[in-house]
Protein backbone atom coordinates (compact mmCIF):
# COMPACT_ATOMS: atom_id res chain seq x y z
CA UNK A 1 0.00 0.00 0.00
CA UNK A 2 1.43 3.43 -0.82
CA UNK A 3 1.72 6.09 1.86
CA UNK A 4 -1.32 8.13 0.75
CA UNK A 5 -3.56 5.07 0.73
CA UNK A 6 -2.33 4.03 4.16
CA UNK A 7 -3.08 7.50 5.53
CA UNK A 8 -6.57 7.41 4.03
CA UNK A 9 -7.25 4.06 5.66
CA UNK A 10 -5.84 5.22 8.99
CA UNK A 11 -7.95 8.38 8.89
CA UNK A 12 -11.05 6.22 8.47
CA UNK A 13 -9.98 3.74 11.11
CA UNK A 14 -8.79 6.03 13.90
CA UNK A 15 -10.15 9.55 13.51
CA UNK A 16 -13.50 11.04 14.50
CA UNK A 17 -13.89 14.47 12.94
CA UNK A 18 -15.77 17.34 14.61
CA UNK A 19 -19.20 18.40 13.31
CA UNK A 20 -18.90 15.70 10.65
CA UNK A 21 -21.13 12.84 9.71
CA UNK A 22 -18.41 10.24 9.35
CA UNK A 23 -20.36 8.43 6.65
CA UNK A 24 -19.80 11.54 4.51
CA UNK A 25 -16.11 11.61 5.35
CA UNK A 26 -15.65 7.93 4.61
CA UNK A 27 -17.30 8.47 1.22
CA UNK A 28 -15.30 11.61 0.33
CA UNK A 29 -12.20 11.77 2.51
CA UNK A 30 -9.80 14.69 2.38
CA UNK A 31 -6.43 14.96 4.10
CA UNK A 32 -4.65 18.30 4.09
CA UNK A 33 -0.89 18.12 4.29
CA UNK A 34 0.39 21.65 3.80
CA UNK A 35 -0.58 25.24 3.04
CA UNK A 36 1.00 28.31 1.53
CA UNK A 37 -0.69 31.69 1.14
CA UNK A 38 -4.41 31.07 0.79
CA UNK A 39 -3.90 27.62 -0.74
CA UNK A 40 -4.13 24.26 1.00
CA UNK A 41 -2.59 21.11 -0.45
CA UNK A 42 -3.81 17.57 0.15
CA UNK A 43 -1.69 14.43 0.39
CA UNK A 44 -2.05 13.83 -3.36
CA UNK A 45 -0.67 17.30 -4.13
CA UNK A 46 -4.04 18.75 -5.23
CA UNK A 47 -4.41 22.44 -4.30
CA UNK A 48 -7.49 24.17 -2.94
CA UNK A 49 -8.25 27.85 -2.40
CA UNK A 50 -9.19 28.37 1.23
CA UNK A 51 -12.67 29.81 0.67
CA UNK A 52 -13.68 29.53 4.33
CA UNK A 53 -10.43 30.74 5.92
CA UNK A 54 -9.99 27.26 7.42
CA UNK A 55 -13.28 27.72 9.28
CA UNK A 56 -13.43 31.50 9.50
CA UNK A 57 -10.11 32.16 11.13
CA UNK A 58 -7.19 32.42 8.75
CA UNK A 59 -6.25 36.04 8.03
CA UNK A 60 -2.90 36.42 6.28
CA UNK A 61 -2.81 33.05 4.56
CA UNK A 62 -0.89 30.00 5.68
CA UNK A 63 2.84 30.05 6.48
CA UNK A 64 2.96 33.79 7.06
CA UNK A 65 6.63 34.37 7.77
CA UNK A 66 6.23 36.88 10.60
CA UNK A 67 3.93 34.54 12.55
CA UNK A 68 6.05 31.47 11.83
CA UNK A 69 9.10 33.38 13.11
CA UNK A 70 7.34 34.64 16.24
CA UNK A 71 6.32 31.11 17.19
CA UNK A 72 9.84 29.80 16.58
CA UNK A 73 11.31 32.60 18.71
CA UNK A 74 8.84 31.88 21.51
CA UNK A 75 9.76 28.16 21.34
CA UNK A 76 13.31 29.12 22.23
CA UNK A 77 12.08 30.76 25.43
CA UNK A 78 9.20 28.51 26.60
CA UNK A 79 6.14 26.84 25.08
CA UNK A 80 3.83 26.85 28.05
CA UNK A 81 3.56 27.58 31.73
CA UNK A 82 0.29 27.85 33.62
CA UNK A 83 -1.57 31.15 33.89
CA UNK A 84 -3.26 30.00 37.10
CA UNK A 85 -1.75 32.30 39.69
CA UNK A 86 1.24 33.31 37.51
CA UNK A 87 1.36 35.60 34.47
CA UNK A 88 3.59 35.16 31.43
CA UNK A 89 5.27 37.68 29.16
CA UNK A 90 3.36 37.34 25.84
CA UNK A 91 0.03 37.02 27.70
CA UNK A 92 0.64 40.40 29.34
CA UNK A 93 1.78 42.03 26.11
CA UNK A 94 -1.21 40.69 24.20
CA UNK A 95 -3.68 41.81 26.89
CA UNK A 96 -2.24 45.34 26.67
CA UNK A 97 -2.53 45.29 22.88
CA UNK A 98 -6.14 44.03 23.02
CA UNK A 99 -7.05 46.86 25.36
CA UNK A 100 -5.82 49.29 22.70
CA UNK A 101 -7.72 47.84 19.75
CA UNK A 102 -11.09 46.90 21.31
CA UNK A 103 -13.88 49.36 22.27
CA UNK A 104 -12.55 51.87 24.75
CA UNK A 105 -14.57 50.71 27.77
CA UNK A 106 -13.03 47.21 27.57
CA UNK A 107 -9.87 46.91 29.59
CA UNK A 108 -9.45 43.39 30.98
CA UNK A 109 -8.58 40.24 29.09
CA UNK A 110 -9.46 36.78 30.37
CA UNK A 111 -7.92 34.12 28.14
CA UNK A 112 -9.28 30.80 26.96
CA UNK A 113 -8.73 28.29 24.15
CA UNK A 114 -11.81 28.45 21.90
CA UNK A 115 -14.70 30.67 20.93
CA UNK A 116 -17.16 28.48 22.79
CA UNK A 117 -15.09 28.71 25.96
CA UNK A 118 -14.85 32.48 25.66
CA UNK A 119 -18.67 32.52 25.62
CA UNK A 120 -18.88 30.12 28.60
CA UNK A 121 -16.63 32.54 30.44
CA UNK A 122 -18.73 35.56 29.46
CA UNK A 123 -21.93 34.00 30.78
CA UNK A 124 -20.28 32.75 33.99
CA UNK A 125 -18.73 36.19 34.49
CA UNK A 126 -22.01 38.03 33.90
CA UNK A 127 -23.85 35.66 36.23
CA UNK A 128 -21.27 35.94 38.99
CA UNK A 129 -20.95 39.70 38.56
CA UNK A 130 -24.56 40.12 39.66
CA UNK A 131 -24.15 37.52 42.42
CA UNK A 132 -21.07 39.31 43.76
CA UNK A 133 -22.94 42.63 43.68
CA UNK A 134 -25.84 41.13 45.65
CA UNK A 135 -28.40 40.91 42.83
CA UNK A 136 -29.08 37.24 43.44
CA UNK A 137 -32.16 37.02 41.18
CA UNK A 138 -30.31 38.13 38.04
CA UNK A 139 -29.48 34.67 36.69
CA UNK A 140 -31.11 34.41 33.24
CA UNK A 141 -29.84 35.15 29.75
CA UNK A 142 -31.67 36.48 26.75
CA UNK A 143 -30.60 35.11 23.40
CA UNK A 144 -31.63 35.79 19.81
CA UNK A 145 -33.24 33.28 17.48
CA UNK A 146 -30.65 31.65 15.19
CA UNK A 147 -27.79 32.82 17.42
CA UNK A 148 -24.72 30.61 17.50
CA UNK A 149 -22.06 30.80 20.18
CA UNK A 150 -20.27 27.47 20.05
CA UNK A 151 -20.98 23.86 20.92
CA UNK A 152 -20.27 23.42 24.63
CA UNK A 153 -23.24 23.03 26.98
CA UNK A 154 -23.24 26.64 28.21
CA UNK A 155 -22.68 28.00 24.72
CA UNK A 156 -25.55 25.99 23.22
CA UNK A 157 -27.78 27.08 26.09
CA UNK A 158 -27.41 30.68 24.95
CA UNK A 159 -27.54 29.69 21.28
CA UNK A 160 -30.58 28.99 19.18
CA UNK A 161 -29.72 27.19 15.96
CA UNK A 162 -32.28 24.45 16.22
CA UNK A 163 -30.45 22.06 13.90
CA UNK A 164 -27.41 21.95 16.18
CA UNK A 165 -29.12 22.25 19.50
CA UNK A 166 -32.19 20.06 19.55
CA UNK A 167 -30.18 16.85 20.07
CA UNK A 168 -28.80 18.14 23.36
CA UNK A 169 -31.97 19.88 24.57
CA UNK A 170 -32.23 18.20 27.94
CA UNK A 171 -28.62 19.03 28.81
CA UNK A 172 -29.09 22.75 28.37
CA UNK A 173 -30.14 25.47 30.82
CA UNK A 174 -33.06 27.53 29.64
CA UNK A 175 -32.57 31.02 28.26
CA UNK A 176 -35.13 33.59 27.20
CA UNK A 177 -35.56 33.71 23.42
CA UNK A 178 -36.02 37.01 21.60
CA UNK A 179 -36.61 37.29 17.85
CA UNK A 180 -33.75 38.17 15.52
CA UNK A 181 -34.72 40.90 13.02
CA UNK A 182 -34.52 38.60 10.01
CA UNK A 183 -35.01 40.38 6.69
CA UNK A 184 -34.91 37.54 4.15
CA UNK A 185 -38.16 35.53 4.12
CA UNK A 186 -39.73 37.94 6.63
CA UNK A 187 -42.46 38.78 4.16
CA UNK A 188 -41.75 42.43 4.93
CA UNK A 189 -39.67 44.64 2.72
CA UNK A 190 -38.73 47.44 5.09
CA UNK A 191 -35.68 46.62 7.27
CA UNK A 192 -36.38 49.60 9.55
CA UNK A 193 -39.82 48.23 10.38
CA UNK A 194 -38.33 44.77 11.02
CA UNK A 195 -35.74 46.35 13.33
CA UNK A 196 -38.31 48.39 15.24
CA UNK A 197 -40.56 45.39 15.68
CA UNK A 198 -37.72 43.23 17.04
CA UNK A 199 -36.60 46.00 19.38
CA UNK A 200 -40.14 46.46 20.65
CA UNK A 201 -40.37 42.74 21.44
CA UNK A 202 -37.03 42.88 23.22
CA UNK A 203 -38.17 45.89 25.22
CA UNK A 204 -41.22 43.95 26.35
CA UNK A 205 -39.04 41.08 27.57
CA UNK A 206 -36.65 43.43 29.36
CA UNK A 207 -39.49 45.43 30.88
CA UNK A 208 -41.27 42.45 32.36
CA UNK A 209 -38.25 40.35 33.37
CA UNK A 210 -35.23 42.66 33.88
CA UNK A 211 -34.99 41.79 37.56
CA UNK A 212 -34.07 38.21 36.64
CA UNK A 213 -32.00 38.93 33.51
CA UNK A 214 -28.21 38.98 33.89
CA UNK A 215 -27.38 39.66 30.25
CA UNK A 216 -28.17 39.28 26.60
CA UNK A 217 -25.83 37.19 24.44
CA UNK A 218 -25.66 38.01 20.77
CA UNK A 219 -23.43 38.12 17.73
CA UNK A 220 -22.27 41.41 16.30
CA UNK A 221 -24.09 42.95 13.29
CA UNK A 222 -24.14 39.61 11.45
CA UNK A 223 -25.11 36.15 12.66
CA UNK A 224 -22.68 33.58 11.30
CA UNK A 225 -23.61 29.92 11.72
CA UNK A 226 -27.30 30.84 12.06
CA UNK A 227 -27.33 31.72 8.36
CA UNK A 228 -25.16 34.80 7.66
CA UNK A 229 -28.04 37.06 8.71
CA UNK A 230 -27.29 40.76 8.75
CA UNK A 231 -29.06 42.93 11.32
CA UNK A 232 -30.92 45.97 9.99
CA UNK A 233 -28.99 49.19 10.57
CA UNK A 234 -29.47 50.52 14.09
CA UNK A 235 -30.59 47.24 15.68
CA UNK A 236 -27.41 46.59 17.64
CA UNK A 237 -27.30 50.19 18.83
CA UNK A 238 -30.93 49.84 19.88
CA UNK A 239 -30.10 46.74 21.93
CA UNK A 240 -27.22 48.57 23.61
CA UNK A 241 -29.56 51.39 24.66
CA UNK A 242 -32.16 48.94 25.98
CA UNK A 243 -29.46 47.15 28.01
CA UNK A 244 -28.45 50.43 29.63
CA UNK A 245 -32.06 51.35 30.34
CA UNK A 246 -32.83 48.05 32.06
CA UNK A 247 -29.44 47.30 33.69
CA UNK A 248 -28.76 44.23 31.61
CA UNK A 249 -25.23 43.27 30.54
CA UNK A 250 -24.56 43.33 26.81
CA UNK A 251 -22.47 40.29 25.86
CA UNK A 252 -21.24 40.58 22.30
CA UNK A 253 -19.79 37.58 20.53
CA UNK A 254 -17.14 38.73 18.04
CA UNK A 255 -15.64 35.26 17.65
CA UNK A 256 -16.45 35.14 13.93
CA UNK A 257 -16.72 38.86 13.18
CA UNK A 258 -13.59 40.11 14.92
CA UNK A 259 -10.23 41.01 13.41
CA UNK A 260 -11.39 42.69 10.25
CA UNK A 261 -13.71 40.04 8.89
CA UNK A 262 -16.57 42.52 8.44
CA UNK A 263 -14.42 45.40 7.22
CA UNK A 264 -13.87 46.92 10.67
CA UNK A 265 -11.49 45.57 13.27
CA UNK A 266 -14.56 44.57 15.33
CA UNK A 267 -18.11 44.59 14.00
CA UNK A 268 -19.38 46.65 16.97
CA UNK A 269 -17.51 49.57 15.37
CA UNK A 270 -20.12 49.68 12.60
CA UNK A 271 -22.52 51.17 15.18
CA UNK A 272 -20.10 52.46 17.79
CA UNK A 273 -21.37 49.98 20.39
CA UNK A 274 -19.56 49.35 23.67
CA UNK A 275 -20.43 45.94 25.09
CA UNK A 276 -19.96 45.01 28.75
CA UNK A 277 -18.35 41.76 27.72
CA UNK A 278 -16.92 40.82 24.35
CA UNK A 279 -15.73 37.41 23.20
CA UNK A 280 -12.95 37.04 20.63
CA UNK A 281 -11.18 34.02 19.13
CA UNK A 282 -10.64 32.64 15.60
CA UNK A 283 -8.68 35.47 13.85
CA UNK A 284 -6.86 36.51 17.02
CA UNK A 285 -3.81 34.41 16.09
CA UNK A 286 -4.31 34.89 12.35
CA UNK A 287 -5.67 31.35 12.33
CA UNK A 288 -2.56 29.72 13.77
CA UNK A 289 -3.16 28.56 17.32
CA UNK A 290 -6.12 28.13 19.67
CA UNK A 291 -6.33 31.35 21.65
CA UNK A 292 -9.56 33.10 22.67
CA UNK A 293 -10.41 35.84 25.11
CA UNK A 294 -13.29 37.43 26.98
CA UNK A 295 -12.80 41.17 27.32
CA UNK A 296 -14.58 43.18 29.95
CA UNK A 297 -14.77 46.47 31.79
CA UNK A 298 -12.96 47.56 34.92
CA UNK A 299 -16.33 47.80 36.68
CA UNK A 300 -17.08 44.12 36.12
CA UNK A 301 -13.51 43.14 37.02
CA UNK A 302 -13.72 45.09 40.28
CA UNK A 303 -16.80 43.16 41.39
CA UNK A 304 -14.59 40.05 41.64
CA UNK A 305 -12.11 41.62 44.06
CA UNK A 306 -12.22 40.67 47.73
CA UNK A 307 -10.76 38.33 50.34
CA UNK A 308 -10.61 34.70 49.25
CA UNK A 309 -13.25 33.58 51.76
CA UNK A 310 -15.78 35.99 50.25
CA UNK A 311 -15.96 33.57 47.29
CA UNK A 312 -15.79 36.35 44.74
CA UNK A 313 -12.99 34.68 42.78
CA UNK A 314 -13.75 33.86 39.17
CA UNK A 315 -13.63 30.07 39.16
CA UNK A 316 -12.53 29.28 35.64
CA UNK A 317 -9.26 28.35 33.95
CA UNK A 318 -7.94 25.53 31.81
CA UNK A 319 -4.59 23.78 31.56
CA UNK A 320 -3.53 25.71 28.46
CA UNK A 321 -5.12 29.08 29.25
CA UNK A 322 -2.88 31.94 28.08
CA UNK A 323 -0.46 29.63 26.25
CA UNK A 324 2.76 31.49 25.37
CA UNK A 325 3.07 30.17 21.81
CA UNK A 326 -0.50 31.22 21.06
CA UNK A 327 -0.08 34.68 22.60
CA UNK A 328 3.18 35.21 20.69
CA UNK A 329 1.41 34.24 17.45
CA UNK A 330 -1.43 36.65 18.27
CA UNK A 331 1.00 39.52 18.90
CA UNK A 332 2.75 38.88 15.59
CA UNK A 333 -0.64 38.66 13.88
CA UNK A 334 -1.75 42.03 15.25
CA UNK A 335 1.53 43.67 14.28
CA UNK A 336 0.86 42.69 10.67
CA UNK A 337 -2.52 44.49 10.77
CA UNK A 338 -0.64 47.68 11.57
CA UNK A 339 2.32 47.13 9.28
CA UNK A 340 0.15 46.26 6.29
CA UNK A 341 -2.61 48.72 7.11
CA UNK A 342 -4.83 45.71 6.69
CA UNK A 343 -8.25 47.10 7.55
CA UNK A 344 -7.85 49.80 4.90
CA UNK A 345 -6.43 47.33 2.38
CA UNK A 346 -9.35 44.97 2.83
CA UNK A 347 -11.93 47.59 1.73
CA UNK A 348 -10.92 47.13 -1.92
CA UNK A 349 -11.30 43.38 -1.60
CA UNK A 350 -14.75 43.76 -0.09
CA UNK A 351 -15.76 45.83 -3.14
CA UNK A 352 -14.34 43.20 -5.51
CA UNK A 353 -16.29 40.47 -3.75
CA UNK A 354 -19.46 42.54 -3.90
CA UNK A 355 -19.06 43.06 -7.62
CA UNK A 356 -18.38 39.35 -8.18
CA UNK A 357 -21.27 38.15 -6.04
CA UNK A 358 -23.64 40.57 -7.76
CA UNK A 359 -23.14 38.48 -10.87
CA UNK A 360 -24.37 35.38 -9.03
CA UNK A 361 -27.64 37.06 -8.03
CA UNK A 362 -29.35 36.16 -11.26
CA UNK A 363 -28.53 32.46 -11.13
CA UNK A 364 -31.70 30.42 -11.18
CA UNK A 365 -31.16 28.78 -7.80
CA UNK A 366 -29.75 31.71 -5.85
CA UNK A 367 -32.38 33.11 -3.48
CA UNK A 368 -30.35 35.68 -1.59
CA UNK A 369 -26.78 36.86 -1.21
CA UNK A 370 -25.77 38.43 2.07
CA UNK A 371 -22.42 40.12 2.51
CA UNK A 372 -20.88 42.09 5.34
CA UNK A 373 -17.23 42.72 4.59
CA UNK A 374 -15.67 39.37 3.76
CA UNK A 375 -18.42 37.38 5.51
CA UNK A 376 -20.78 36.18 2.81
CA UNK A 377 -23.63 33.72 2.49
CA UNK A 378 -25.21 32.58 -0.76
CA UNK A 379 -28.60 31.02 -0.09
CA UNK A 380 -29.66 28.38 -2.58
CA UNK A 381 -33.37 27.85 -3.14
CA UNK A 382 -35.54 25.72 -5.38
CA UNK A 383 -37.49 28.75 -6.53
CA UNK A 384 -35.94 32.21 -6.41
CA UNK A 385 -39.30 33.95 -6.90
CA UNK A 386 -41.12 32.30 -4.01
CA UNK A 387 -37.87 31.52 -2.11
CA UNK A 388 -39.07 27.97 -1.59
CA UNK A 389 -36.14 26.04 -0.13
CA UNK A 390 -34.81 22.80 -1.54
CA UNK A 391 -35.96 19.76 0.42
CA UNK A 392 -33.55 19.39 3.35
CA UNK A 393 -32.64 15.84 2.45
CA UNK A 394 -31.40 16.79 -1.01
CA UNK A 395 -28.37 18.43 0.63
CA UNK A 396 -27.89 20.86 -2.20
CA UNK A 397 -25.52 23.03 -0.16
CA UNK A 398 -23.34 20.10 0.79
CA UNK A 399 -23.24 18.74 -2.74
CA UNK A 400 -22.35 22.17 -4.13
CA UNK A 401 -19.39 22.46 -1.80
CA UNK A 402 -18.22 18.98 -2.80
CA UNK A 403 -18.28 20.19 -6.38
CA UNK A 404 -16.28 23.27 -5.34
CA UNK A 405 -13.76 20.97 -3.76
CA UNK A 406 -13.44 19.10 -7.04
CA UNK A 407 -12.92 22.48 -8.78
CA UNK A 408 -10.19 23.52 -6.35
CA UNK A 409 -11.82 25.47 -3.52
CA UNK A 410 -12.82 24.54 0.01
CA UNK A 411 -15.75 25.75 2.07
CA UNK A 412 -18.47 24.33 4.30
CA UNK A 413 -22.14 25.15 3.86
CA UNK A 414 -24.73 26.07 6.46
CA UNK A 415 -27.55 23.90 5.19
CA UNK A 416 -28.20 25.33 1.72
CA UNK A 417 -26.27 28.52 2.41
CA UNK A 418 -22.82 28.56 0.83
CA UNK A 419 -20.38 30.31 3.11
CA UNK A 420 -17.79 32.46 1.41
CA UNK A 421 -15.32 33.83 3.89
CA UNK A 422 -11.92 34.16 2.25
CA UNK A 423 -8.76 35.13 4.15
CA UNK A 424 -8.19 38.89 4.31
CA UNK A 425 -4.95 38.32 2.41
CA UNK A 426 -6.67 36.90 -0.69
CA UNK A 427 -5.61 38.68 -3.86
CA UNK A 428 -8.04 40.16 -6.37
CA UNK A 429 -7.29 37.29 -8.72
CA UNK A 430 -7.86 34.66 -6.05
CA UNK A 431 -11.15 36.25 -5.02
CA UNK A 432 -12.37 36.25 -8.60
CA UNK A 433 -11.22 32.67 -9.08
CA UNK A 434 -13.17 31.53 -6.02
CA UNK A 435 -16.33 33.36 -7.10
CA UNK A 436 -16.06 31.75 -10.50
CA UNK A 437 -15.68 28.29 -8.91
CA UNK A 438 -18.76 28.91 -6.76
CA UNK A 439 -20.74 29.98 -9.82
CA UNK A 440 -19.78 26.90 -11.78
CA UNK A 441 -20.45 24.57 -8.85
CA UNK A 442 -23.89 26.06 -8.19
CA UNK A 443 -24.81 25.83 -11.86
CA UNK A 444 -23.68 22.24 -12.11
CA UNK A 445 -25.17 21.01 -8.84
CA UNK A 446 -28.60 22.60 -8.53
N1 LIG B 1 -19.25 32.19 18.45
C1 LIG B 1 -19.44 32.40 17.14
C2 LIG B 1 -20.17 33.62 16.69
C3 LIG B 1 -18.97 31.48 16.20
O1 LIG B 1 -19.20 31.69 14.90
C4 LIG B 1 -18.29 30.34 16.67
C5 LIG B 1 -17.79 29.34 15.73
O2 LIG B 1 -18.03 29.36 14.55
C6 LIG B 1 -18.11 30.17 18.03
C7 LIG B 1 -18.60 31.12 18.90
C8 LIG B 1 -17.39 28.98 18.55
O3 LIG B 1 -16.02 29.11 18.35
P1 LIG B 1 -15.07 27.85 18.48
O4 LIG B 1 -15.36 26.96 17.33
O5 LIG B 1 -13.68 28.42 18.45
O6 LIG B 1 -15.40 27.22 19.79
From TrEMBL:
Keywords: Aminotransferase, Biotin biosynthesis, Cytoplasm, Pyridoxal phosphate, S-adenosyl-L-methionine, Transferase. Its cofactor is pyridoxal 5'-phosphate. SUPFAM superfamilies: PLP-dependent transferases (SSF53383). It is found in: Cytoplasm. Pathway: Cofactor biosynthesis; biotin biosynthesis; 7,8-diaminononanoate from 8-amino-7-oxononanoate (SAM route): step 1/1. The modification N6-(pyridoxal phosphate)lysine is found at residue 282. GO terms for biological process: biotin biosynthetic process. Its EC number is 2.6.1.62. GO terms for cellular component: cytoplasm. Substrate binds at residues 148, 282, 317, 412. One of its GO terms (molecular function) is adenosylmethionine-8-amino-7-oxononanoate transaminase activity. The record marks 19 as: Participates in the substrate recognition with KAPA and in a stacking interaction with the adenine ring of SAM. InterPro entries: Aminotrans_3 (IPR005814), Aminotrans_3_PPA_site (IPR049704), BioA (IPR005815), PyrdxlP-dep_Trfase (IPR015424), PyrdxlP-dep_Trfase_major (IPR015421), PyrdxlP-dep_Trfase_small (IPR015422). It comes from the Bacteria. Belongs to the class-III pyridoxal-phosphate-dependent aminotransferase family. BioA subfamily. Catalyzes the transfer of the alpha-amino group from S-adenosyl-L-methionine (SAM) to 7-keto-8-aminopelargonic acid (KAPA) to form 7,8-diaminopelargonic acid (DAPA). It is the only aminotransferase known to utilize SAM as an amino donor. PANTHER family: ADENOSYLMETHIONINE-8-AMINO-7-OXONONANOATE AMINOTRANSFERASE. This is Adenosylmethionine-8-amino-7-oxononanoate aminotransferase. It comes from Falsibacillus albus. The lineage of its organism: Bacteria, Bacillati, Bacillota, Bacilli, Bacillales.
Amino acid sequence: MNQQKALLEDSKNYLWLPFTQMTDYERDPLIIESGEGIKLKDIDGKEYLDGYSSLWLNVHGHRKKEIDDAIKKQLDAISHSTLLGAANVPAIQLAKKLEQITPKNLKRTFYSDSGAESVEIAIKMAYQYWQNKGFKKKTKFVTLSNGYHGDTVGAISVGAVDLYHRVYGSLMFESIKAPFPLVYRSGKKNPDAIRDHALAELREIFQSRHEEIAGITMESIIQGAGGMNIMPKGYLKGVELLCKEYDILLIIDEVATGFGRTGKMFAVEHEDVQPDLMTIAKGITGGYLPVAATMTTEEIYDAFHGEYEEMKTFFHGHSYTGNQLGCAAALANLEIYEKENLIEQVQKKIAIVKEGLDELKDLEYVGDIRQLGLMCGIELVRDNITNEPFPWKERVGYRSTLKMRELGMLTRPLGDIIVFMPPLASTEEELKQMISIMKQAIEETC
